[in-house]
Structures are given as structure tokens and as C-alpha cells.
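Lecture notes, unit on protein representations.

Consider one protein chain, 477 amino acids long.
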Amino acid sequence: MFKKNIYKGLGLMLICAAYTACKLPEVAQRTENKSVPAAFSGTQDTVSTANIQWRKFFTDPNLVNLIDTALKNNQELNITLQDIEIAKNEIKAKKGELLPSVTYGVGAGLDKVGRYTSSGAGDASTEITPGKEVPEVLPDYRFGLQANWEVDIWHKLRNAKKGAISNYLATVEGKNFVVTNLIAEVANSYYELLAEDNQLDIVKKNIALQSNALELMKIQKQATRVTELAVRKFEAEVLSSKSLEFDIQQNITETENKINFLLGRFPQPIVRDKSSFTNLVPPTVQSGLPSQLLANRPDIKQAELELAAAKLDVKVAKAQFYPSLGISAAIGYQAFNPSYLLRTPESLIYSLAGDLAGPLINRNAIKAEYLTANAKQLQAVFEYEKAILNGYIEVANQMSKISNLQKSYDLKSKQVAALAQSIDISNDLFKSARADYFEVLMTQRDALQSKLELIETKKQQLNAVVDIYHALGGGWN
């Protein structure tokens, strides 16, 4: 009869478990799309510049030293490294949940029962030899160990641990992405600083040229060949160039401080070779295949690992609908007299119990967690697909930009050469009264503008190479 009741109870629990497990909320499912075009702009080159180590990609020793310092001191990178430590500790915590928890306890107390209670009346009715009866005030001394363990029959805890591992790996890729961003930002800022140095030199030379032209206008005015208007026009042009000089100096200060901030240090001069900028030749970049982005770009790998963690979170949330099996055990010693405390087996106590429990009626909280986990999984799918799409478009844009900037630089170089010759021609024509002062003024202005634009284009060329190296996933390895 007793066995029958046990079997009935187990059968009822199994029916309840099956009921709660089968009635799961319906959710939308979506498989991520990993497909990418076969090539960039029809090229089938399998060699990718992303595989070049950054120390070999950047050949300027001053820039290499700056990047080295940034990788050691940058605050954002150091914050990300702590994220990795946090994720690593989360793995230990989830791993610990798979193991039984064991605690120890030591206790002492007093217990006095009422005379007119079942316990008190029972003690009084028992015939015990005087001196052997239970004391009216009963001390209690005990110590022992207690263990609790949730049997992971639905892999809830295992999946939680796997999810923590995926999140840890995602933080590592996140750190790699911060590294690639940091290297690109330092390099771009460095080239911007070199460009501003060269623009400043051009403006200073132009100020000297304009000052000479101003003196010439003053002489021409004394000879009544030009009016006061020409003198004032050239004087205004000199003042405008001097104002531009201070603007560029301010830009240099801000760019230096930007680099110092990336390097995690207070403002100080940035060591650089200003004279080599115009001779810098952007290295040839090989894009490789779009499919290589999946392995090279840290942000894509991070999104993929976060998606894997989100899928595991859904499984963990789903397992909450199933009953959980818990086992508890305890062993120790207990007695009302310390002298009896270690007597075995008289004072030995132990227990062993198991329980199966699951949600039955009010499951709204569990449903909400399950639906939230599934929504986050869908978000992770979209984030992963967006990372792939973004990576491809960034590479395609930078490849096109490199090609167009090279063509633009060649044309601007010819423009600068032509305008440099036109300055001498306009001065000669002015001296022979075959050109007016306005033509001289506009020629000098156009020449200055073209030289500044040439420097800007060179900077954009170098930045585009840095950006495509970053877009291909280079720098972190």
C-alpha cells in the first residue's frame, strides 16, 4: 500500500512536469544570414592586408612609438581589459553552480518547553530514574556539514556556463576591436598633425610672398601705377593669411592633445618628422575576399559570439518551465551536553532528501523571461547581420575612395604646378603693365588654396589606407 502511494505521487509529479513543459509560449524564430558577395568589385584576390601585423604596416618609427604607448596606457582599452576579467569571473560563477554547495555550521542554544504542551506532558509522564530525566531547560550543541545540489537534468546550468564562456570570448573580441579602433585613430590623428604642419609651412611661405607683393604695390602706388585700393587689398590678404596661420596653429595644438589623450597622458609635444609628409607613398592594399571578413574583423566575431550566448540564454530560460531536481544532505553531531557531543553513533545526526519542483499555475514571470530572452536572441541575429553588412560596405567604400583620391591627387599636383608658374607670370605681366593687381592677387590666392587642398588630399589618402586596414580587420593580431 505504501509503495502504491509512492508510485502514485511520482506519477502525479511526472504528469505535472509534462504539462508545464509542453505548454510553452510561441515565439518567432529566425536563422542568421551569413552570406556575403563573392568578391570586392570583381577581384578574386585571396591575400588580405589585414593579416599584416601593424608594426610592419606602419613604417614611421615615430608613429609606431605612439601606437605602442597608446596600447599600454589608453584608458578605454584598460577598461575593456577589466570587462574581460569580469566575464572570466562569470564563467567561474556559472561553473560553481554545477557543483554541490557545501556549508558548515556550529551552533548552541537553550530550549524550555511548556509543561502543558504535548512535549512537556510527554516528558512528565515518562518514568525516568531521578537524575536521568531530561533537564527542564534543555541545552543544545551541534556542528556539522550541509550540502545542496541541483541535478542539471535539463542542461540549464551547463547552458548557462556555455553562455558565460561565449560572453567571455565576445569581450575578448571586443577588446580586439577597441585595439583596431585605437590604432586607426592614433594613425589618422598623426597624419592629420603632419598635414597641419605642412599647411602651416605653406601659409608662412605664402605670407612672405604676399608681403613682398604688398611692398611692390606700395612702390607702384608711389609711382602712381596703382591706387590705394590695390595696397589695401594686398594688405587685407596678408592679414587674412596671418589669421589663417593662427587657426592652423590652434588645430595643431588640439590634434597634439587628441593624440596625448589617446596615449593616456597630459599634453606634451608629439615627436614627428614634418618634412617627410609630402613624400609619403600610401602602401598598396589588398582586400582579399569578403568571406575573410568573418574571420578577420573582431566586431563581426564579437557579434557572432554574442549571438551564440543569446541562443544559450533562450535554452536556459526555456528550462525554467521544467521541474528541477534538488538533493540535500547533512551530517554532524548534536547533544544537550558537550561531553556527549562527539559520541558515535549516539550523537551522530545525518539526513538525505530529494525534491522535484516545477512551476504549475503562476508562470507569468517565467514566460516573460523566456520571451525576453528570445527577443534578445533576435536582436543578436540582426546585430550580427548588420556587422557583416557594415564591414563589407566599409571596405567597398574605402577601396573606391583610395582609387578616386589617387586620381584627384594627380590632378591637384598638376594644378599646383600650373598655379606656381602663374604667380611668376602674373608678377612679370604686372611689372610690364600687361596685368592688373587683381589678377596678381587672385593668382596668389588660388595658388595658396590649391597647395592647401593638395596637402588635404594627401592626408585623406593616408587616412583612407588606415581606414581600409581597419575595415579589413587589421591591427589586433
